[in-house]
Design a protein that fits this description.
The chain is α+β, with helices and mostly antiparallel strands. The protein is built from five helices and four strands; from the N terminus they run αααβαββαβ. The chain folds into two domains: 41 residues, Winged helix-like DNA-binding domain superfamily/Winged helix DNA-binding domain (Arc Repressor Mutant, subunit A, Orthogonal Bundle); 75 residues, Alpha-Beta Plaits.
Length: 153
């Protein structure tokens, strides 16, 4: 793991908020010369700390305001059951996140849909056909209180 100093943390904090900021503006915000700032960003990218740059889209403006959390319990814990499930769940375009869990469910999925009817379609077409599923419980988010992609640094 790479050691981060306060300057690296400032760079990462700014880039998480403003991924399209120019190097000149970034260097000004973090109080570095442009060349030193560029070298640090390059080092953070090379180390894999900065994994990618993305555009964050507004799901409401794209007609996908419904968020559903789906808890899935599998019929077994054998590697082949887990591998088959994970291979298939990666192919579902409406699944934004899939986490292997410790606790009551084996997996927790974050699914996005247009509305309850659209989620029913996703459930029928994809979720109900996932291999190894013994139980599934879905919870609809009523309101998002906090959402961020920024990691604390």
């Amino acid at each position: 793991m790479m050691e981060l100093d306060a300057t690296d943390a400032r760079i990462l904090t700014v880039l998480q908020r403003k991924g399209r900021i120019s190097n000149a503006d970034l260097s000004e915000e973090v109080h570095l010369s442009a060349s030193a700032c560029h070298r640090r960003v390059q080092r953070l990218e090379d180390a894999g700390i900065i994994r990618d740059y993305v555009a964050l889209l507004d799901p409401r403006k794209l007609g996908r305001p419904t968020v559903v959390f789906v808890e899935i319990t599998l019929s077994g814990q054998a590697d082949e059951v887990l591998d088959a499930f994970e291979r298939e769940v990666r192919l579902i375009p409406d699944v934004l996140e899939c986490h292997l869990m410790a606790g009551t469910a084996d997996y927790l999925l974050k699914v996005i849909a247009r509305d309850t009817e659209d989620f029913a379609r996703i459930h029928r077409r994809y979720l109900a056909r996932l291999p190894g599923v013994a139980q599934m419980h879905s919870s609809f988010a009523l309101r998002t209180v906090r959402q961020t992609t920024a990691l604390p640094v």
